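Bug: token stream looks shifted between consecutive jobs. Job 1:
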Amino acid sequence: MPLDVNLRIYSAHKEFYDNLQKINLPSSYPEIKASAILISGCQDNQYSLDGATNGLFTGTLKQIWNTGQFAGNYRRLRDEIARIMPPSQTPNYYTTGVPSPEFEAQTPFKW
């Protein structure tokens, strides 16, 4: 949402949004015990490039993943993608939540 639209909507409904913040304090959130891995197309200060039929990152990921033939873990998947991509677009690897070395060691996209 464009910033000017966001500010206009917030200003028009300020009391409503401020009350939502008061009743949803972070201390009232339940503890999350999940782990998540984010592998994204580029760093925050970079742009994602286009490819022939997908974005460059997605096309490269599909090539490396090779319809499930890829045998490494999530970190290796990211590293293999980065090896092929230009230096102007470096895929990101970020984990959040409860650290889980077992999860990170899994073969990507195997259920």
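Job 2, same session, no restart:
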Amino acid sequence: MPLASDYPLGGVLWTLLVFFAWVFWIMIAIRIFADIFRRHDMSGFGKVLWSIFVIIAPFLGVFVYLLIYHQGIAERDMASAQATQQQMDSYVRSVAGGSAEEIAKAKGLLDSGAITQAEFDQIKAKALASG
């Protein structure tokens, strides 16, 4: 007798639904804790109270937090993403800026005939290695 006959398709689907609901719930709870602890406008005491509320009454705590601070979560996410993008852009400019200028100058010298192709390749390799 096959084992699958004791567990009908509806039971399998219900189990999958419950499993994914718990995964979703865990993701939301982690997200709420991350938002609580990265906030700069909330005191440490407030963070502790929200953490206790979410731990003691998880469903109610998370739902109340989402209802009260839903807009702030999105704004903090956007600010964090913009700050990260600005840092990345600044880093890329600082790394690529100097070597790109050196290579452009060397290319101008190569085009004017002041240096040979071998000298250009050497300058290019040196600029790329230092940058």
